[in-house]
Amino acid sequence: MNGKGHVNEGILIPKESKHYILHNAGVPVCCWEDEEHLLGCVQCQVTRGKGHSSSPVNGAPHVNGHHHRHHHDEKHHARGHRGHGTHGLFVKGTGVVVGHRGSPVHGQEKRWTRAATPVSVDGIAIVDIEVYDERIMGIYGCGENEEDTYVYAMPRWKQRRVDIIDLKGKFLLPTFVDLHTHIDKGHTAERSRNPTGNLSGADRSTAADAAFWDAEDVECRMEFSVRCAYAHGTSALRTHLINMTDKHIELTWPAFAKIRDRWKGRVELQGVSLAALSFFRDEDAARKLADVVAEHGGLLGAAVCCAEQGGMPEDDWTTCDKDRDLLLDRIFTLAKERNLDIDFHTDENGNELARGLRYVAEKTLKYGYQGRVVCGHCCSLAYQPEHELRRTLAVAAKAGVTVVSLPLVNQWTQDRHGSGGRTPRWRGITLLHEARQAGVPVAIASDNTRDQFYAYGDLDMLEVFNQGCRMAHLDRPYGTWVQSVTSTPANAMRVFDHGRIRVGCPANFIIFPTARRYSELLSRPQYDRIVVRNGSPIDTELPSYEELDYIPNAVLKGQVPSSEVSYDRVSGAVIWKTRVASSDPHPVEKRGHAMVSNIVLKKSLEYVNSTNTAMMHNTIGILQIVEWIVFLIVTFYLIQYT
């Protein structure tokens, strides 16, 4: 390749490089154009004085020889998109990289001779992405002409070395945005197992696991979860924090605040309070919770029609037929008084009568909260009659409610028989296609990871998108579905610099060195992905599960009497057994790392406090004394009877 720079043979981004070009990157058009959702980062016409031609900015794709044109006046251009300006928008035909208010970026002029950019049937375009000083400074179409040339006409004192990295068509995506998680409960699946695997079993075992919660335990598991998400390429994450009791509230929010501060600039974190709708019957408790949420800059949340019997009159926990309107009014009033966004769990079941999404959307319109409300799960849409479905989706679209589907978790808990031995008849996921066709913004998210609601997962949004494509048939065509894990959840979180490849935004993206098409991207786990943050690759090594091999203080202090600690005399490992939330009254003891209904904690005997160590030695001494007594008794009888 020609130009002032050099070509890297492999995909290697030098950490010290401030200015480089990713050549021949395969990027879904919807990730860098995103015409519908960019909220003012428009494709516009810009002229440089008289006689200059004008054409679209921000790399608008030329499909079949046509390009999109949006006229505007000079004042509109100077204004740019909301609060971001128009830094680095490349204007084809003018020979200039347009900076803020039309000024050239770094005084640099470019002549661009490339042909129209072809777009594949799956919406993937081969483009060049220019990164300078931690930001994306340009997105340029790649023609098929091998003689294409970059020409840099800069003052000598501004000339800089430019690294050119040829991706050879490899997939490039913006960093992921995970709209719905539960990092406060994460990584508790083994110590408090869900004996049935269904929703009610998850509720009971989660309540039982609270016995192990303290500040250290909650913070440790939260930190572990965010490290996993970061390594996989997530740059923004929203987590629900269970807030059903005073203990939950006192533990989760301070721990979350510490984690959020610690990860500031790397992962944008948002917290949502999670309580059943019936919780808000206590006005004082509801007001206190809303104040805590506001103090920590969080969102208010609730579960509506979300139990296994959700939507039915007998569910007085999350459906609350008698006073549902009053309770929803209370939630919206508390939120509006404190200027809080709201995020609900709704309709996490397969019941036709579960219509929490509709109830929430109607209140959203009543309180003027359009665009500030998210509803997760919405599984029951799959069982609503056609006329009821159309009614629900119409009001949700009008209210601007974002629906977030949790495919991994819902396929695991929904339609599961508590005693096992039955194959599920439906996939548990909501109607993604129908919702989006009705104009409802649709996202996909991780939800639970290694807890009572889902025993697996690692906050890897590529896995979530992968499984979502398979379960919900998002692949014929793929179209803009990748936005469901990038720009759509970013819009819902109102973090508009995340989840998109956009000129002027931070250079945050993921390169997949072995994938060029969706079929390649979604067929392997892509463990060799290169995560780039602010223009530099990060360390993507995942934390070891052994970091979670600690004994909770509740066990060490004897606060959980159903637990038992024993020792492997061969390896010196601590074997911790607990019957909390276990359906097996006699957990099978396993040594080493095997886990049945026990948790095996690989720690040396030195980790155990001196009291426990002394008890072990005393036990060995007592056994030796008993052996001597038995020996004397046997000897006495042998002498007497011989």
The beta-strand count equals 24
Q: Order the strands across the largest sheet as they lie in space.
A: 1-9-2-6-7
Unreliable segments of 5+ consecutive residues: 1-9, 34-115, 143-159, 562-567, 569-574, 579-616
How many DSSP helices? 16
Structural class: alpha/beta
Write the layout of secondary structure elements.
Layout: E1 6-8, E2 19-28, H1 29-32, H2 74-79, E3 89-91, E4 96-98, E5 104-111, E6 124-132, E7 135-141, E8 151-153, E9 163-166, E10 171-174, E11 176-181, H3 199-209, H4 215-232, E12 234-242, H5 246-262, E13 268-274, H6 283-295, E14 300-304, H7 324-338, E15 342-346, H8 356-366, E16 373-377, H9 386-399, E17 402-405, H10 407-413, H11 432-437, E18 442-444, H12 461-472, H13 487-493, E19 509-512, H14 518-521, E20 530-533, E21 536-537, H15 553-556, E22 563-567, E23 574-578, E24 598-601, H16 610-640
Parallel strand pairs: 1-9, 2-9, 11-12, 12-13, 14-15, 15-16, 16-17, 17-18
Antiparallel strand pairs: 2-6, 3-4, 4-5, 5-8, 6-7, 10-19, 19-20, 20-21, 22-23, 23-24
Describe this structure in words.
By secondary structure, the protein is an alpha/beta fold. The chain is built from 16 helices and 24 strands. Strands 1-9-2-6-7 form a five-stranded mixed sheet.
